[in-house]
Amino acid sequence: MRKLYGLSIIFALLLVVSACSSDSSSEKKDDGDEAEDSTATGEVEIFSWWTGAGEEDGLLALIDLFEEQHDDIKVENAAVAGGAGTNAKAVLATRMQGNDPPSTFQVHGGEELNKSWVAADKMEPLNDLYEENGWMDKFPEDLIDLVSMDDQIYSVPVDIHRGNVMFYNKEVFEENDIEIPKTFDEFFEAADKLQDAGITPISLGDKESWTATMIFENVLLGVLGPDDYNKLFADEIEFDDERVIEAAEKFNKMLDYIDDDHASRNWQDAARLVADGDAAMINMGDWAKGYFSNDLDLETNEDFGYFTTPETEGDFTIITDTFGLPKGVENPDEVKEFLTFLGSTEAQDVFNPLKGSIPARVDADESEYDEYGTDTMADFKDSKLVPSLAHGSAASEGFLTKANQAVNIFVTQRDVDNLISALKNAAPEM
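Above: the chain's sequence. Below: its structure in token form.
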């Protein structure tokens, strides 16, 4: 009995030791779990309106490449569809005003960045990022100026789109013996010839009014030239200047050649008319090139061609998508890691061929781009850059809203005096 009793005590003690050992092991495991949680994968939220063909492919390729290179950071794609960015900008405004900024967000370089967010003290400067990465000579000086205010740099350009470009159906041009027009007179002669042949010369989809504003800004550039175009939006030239009136009259004449159902179409619908040969030309940013190539499977310089809008050769209406660091984000170091990636040649050469744009860097790999891309890259390096009005770079959002309204009314009413008066009245908001 004593032996059995002794064995029972020993067994009980063993159970206690085992239990203590188990508790200790459990505590260590819990501690380990806590340690694992404290080093959990970081997250960067990228906010954009890149949901369309080409641009979404490019964005997803960017995210995949970044996560492949940074397995400790996950990227949340917070893209908002619709309205060519209008919906996304409304959501962004709500979040920024509510002190709930995304980690980084798409914003056009120029006044959209500077007057909307930098002037409101919502962005952190990125001069240190540019210096650390040696970017000051990798982006053109004019481009860095577009993303700067008071000697501080506030965003990283990812792409460059050209706004003063016409895409055309090559078969339509060849069958009707149309030469590439360089002047307004040549353009109108070609348009008359196409119209006589029963073909719509210019396809416009102005369901959203910015598409018509794009045409007007490029006519302004052709008439004024780049220096005076910039002076116009710097409020150094009045909107009732005789050359602005001349540009409005030329724009009015262009509207004689657009399709009847333009107001019911978006830009993709209008571009498809050109692709199908029902219209000859479209003035659209070179995201249309991405649409032709990626969505419609058309070949550059076989199915469609391109030329600068009349009298703007040597000029480059620039639209650049950029990303910055909002104030108040919880993970600025991880966001800077992502911005550093966006500014790299590797990232830009993955993204831009899919989107139809060209890289913002001047040292990108040209072998990644087709003939349109390499032509545009060469022009980007050599041309005089001017900011787009229609895409928020040339003037404030308040002025752009009124300018779009004025142009939209003009497309319907065709009253030059009213257009000039509306723009002049809106000028104090530039």
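Confidence is low (pLDDT under 50) at residues 1-40.
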